[in-house]
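Researcher: Next sequence.
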Amino acid sequence: MERGRDERMGRRGRHEVTIDRSRSDFESLVSATSFGAQDPGCRPEILILAKNIVDVRAAVRLAKARNWRIACCSGGHSWSQNHIRAGGMLIDLSRLNEITVEPNDRTATVGPGCLSGDLDAALARHALFFPVAHAYTVGLGGFLLQGGFGWNSRMTGLACESVIAVDVVLADGRLVHASETENADILWAARGAGPGFFGIVCRLPLRSDPGGA
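Model: Next structure:
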């Protein structure tokens, strides 16, 4: 069973950042981070509904001070729901969903919570294309970290091959920019690292191709 898009995306309108187990809506907000409706049977100690990179950095510093492990999600499409773990901190990145398109450079910069269908629509207005996920509601953060086999990937390659840089919050709370010329080892690690990546990706500049309608 899958949750309706309106039900899941309704959490974007909330203003609170830190949600702990004492909150009456803790259960519903944790469940809302998953596209699937099954219950994995475990819960984090705290949920962070990050609105921006500042929130992410503050959350990471808090987790370090409390000695909590961190899990995060963007679109919540993981069938195994491996972002919902027992104990520690869960950071919901769905609100980091900005899209900036530079048509002259054929690039776009997105947040991890940007939905595949939203990027596709934004690029199509400039006759550009990116191999987004086959489902509209897949968040680009998880999709790209997993490698990203999307539309027309047989021609364009895995979507992660078109990631030209990442802005990452590391375990000590530092925000670093990684590209082919700066922190290149971090960019290499981010392409296809999956849920084992050692930082939280908060912004992704992407290369697009001609072809949008």
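Model: The mean pLDDT is 90. DSSP finds seven helices and eleven strands in the chain.
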